[in-house]
Amino acid sequence: MLLEMNGISKRFGPVPALSDVSFTVSKGTVHALVGENGAGKSTLMKILAGVHLPDSGTITIDGKSQSFVKPSDALKAGISMIYQELDLAEDLSVAENFLLGEEPRGKWPFTISYREMVRITETFAASYGFEIEPNAIVCDLSTGDCQIIEILKALYRKSRIIVMDEPTSSLCEDESVKLMEIIRRLRDQGISIVYISHRLEEILNIADNVTVLRDGRVIHSEAMQNLDIPRIVHYMVGRELNDFYPRRNVETGKEFIRVENLCGDGFEEVSFDIKCGEVVGMAGLIGAGRTQIGQCLFGVRAKKDGKIIIDDNEVEIKSPHDAIKYGMAFLTEDRKRTGLCLNLPCIWNVTLPSLKQLGMEFVLNRNKELEAADVFAKRLNISWLDPQALANSLSGGNQQKLLIARWLVAESRFLIFDEPTRGIDVGAKKEIYGLINELAGQGRSILIISSELPELFGVADRILVMRRGRLVGNLVTNCTNPNKVMHLAAVEE
């Protein structure tokens, strides 16, 4: 056995994160680690990666007992971890991030060769079928591009055990397929992969073994060939999940928003409309311009040309403040980088854009804040120890609900969801799908930007298809299929 973790326990204050967990990984296998948000998956792997010290338990690699006090100890032992929340230096180039700490020497003492860094980065990426620009600055890249860089960094360091935490959460279909091919190639080379994902279809296709955590304990561990998705879900949540996608009884009202020939950075001449009570999905590959459109509508990006018409009146949206004034909301695809104020209390994150309408434009009223937060925390089933707890103390699913609560307090009429279920578990996904259906039933207009076609087909009435910055399809969900959508998104005609 390559890796053995026995009797691992960990508490954060009074809260037990892991209780007597044992986890083993064989050489040259893909071992899936699954569970709902907060089940303890990331904590267990951070102990393996030297980020956290266990309160008790042992780690053995190749029969030798190990103690990882810091991440560099784990790296020396051949363990790399690719985190779901990416850990790149945003002001540096791709090449500088890729070879950080391993920079090639220059001709003169105490210098490095940037030209050689570019060459190594470009050559290594190409060897795995990825095309990246070594000179690009990381802050200018998409989340999907950043994810690829993290994966390539781990591969370059030739680790024996690679932990991948939601590695495809920001990748398009083609890039996900490439990653699966890479993982199979690594497995054939004797490298072991610990694969954490909420996309159970991926696990079904790639994993040799599955271990399920729930509430910090191992619930089940078995070879993948003996399992199926319903059984895995049952072990994860302790109950059956019937009717995963809510039934849609479409009763749309008048048109709420219409865009005409909208142009901006990353897209041009885009036109569509959304009615009150309608859920519209937006599909496309990474780089198609989907997120840029959402950001433009919300005033994060400036429009270059075109019209935005709300309630039959043309409006100018130059900032998020303007968008909020017109009843709009935007749930960013990266809740930790551009959504939440992680080091502020949950309650402040909820009320932040609504202070004026709550009567707190100049002076905060703690009781009003608590009342507003409590109502929507119960409505969305947000699990927090205290509304004053910091936002970064919540699981991914609860952080996403926190963002939704923010816009429910603001009474937003048009909600843009960018990758609304990225990195959250199946139970939380079902709750969010139900909430989207409920909001539409109240007459709110919803635009969902998603890389998961089953999600769009499960919740949307229509699907807009983007390709290379242009709208190439406006399809009624019941009258099309995923193959048609993918063809429009990927094939030049």
Concise structural overview:
With 493 residues, the chain is of the alpha/beta class. 33% of the residues lie in helices and 25% in strands.
Give an account of the 3D structure.
The protein is an alpha/beta fold. The protein has two domains: 3-237, P-loop containing nucleotide triphosphate hydrolases (Rossmann fold, 3-Layer(aba) Sandwich), CATH 3.40.50.300; 255-490, Rossmann fold (3-Layer(aba) Sandwich). 33% of the residues lie in helices and 25% in strands. The chain has helices at 41-48, 71-76, 94-98, 114-127, 143-156, 173-188, 200-206, 229-237, 290-297, 320-325, 335-339, 346-351, 366-380, 396-409, 426-441, 453-459, 482-490, and strands at 3-12, 15-25, 30-34, 56-61, 64-66, 79-82, 161-165, 192-196, 209-214, 217-223, 255-264, 267-275, 279-283, 303-310, 313-315, 328-331, 414-418, 445-449, 462-467, 470-476. It has a six-stranded mixed sheet with strand order 6-7-8-3-9-10, with helices on both faces. Strand 7, helix 6 and strand 8 form a beta-alpha-beta unit. Helix 13 (366-380) crosses helix 14 (396-409). The model has no long low-confidence stretch (mean pLDDT 87).
The CATH class designation of the largest domain is: Alpha Beta
CA radius of gyration is 23 Å
Total domain count: 2
From the coordinates shown, what is the CATH architecture of the largest domain?
3-Layer(aba) Sandwich
CATH fold description of the largest domain: Rossmann fold
Structural class: alpha/beta
Proportion of residues in extended strands: 25-35%
What is the overall number of helices?
A: 17
Low-confidence stretches: none
- Indicate the mean pLDDT: 87
Biggest sheet overview:
6 strands, mixed
Terminal residue distance: 52 Å
Q: Choose one word for the global shape.
A: globular
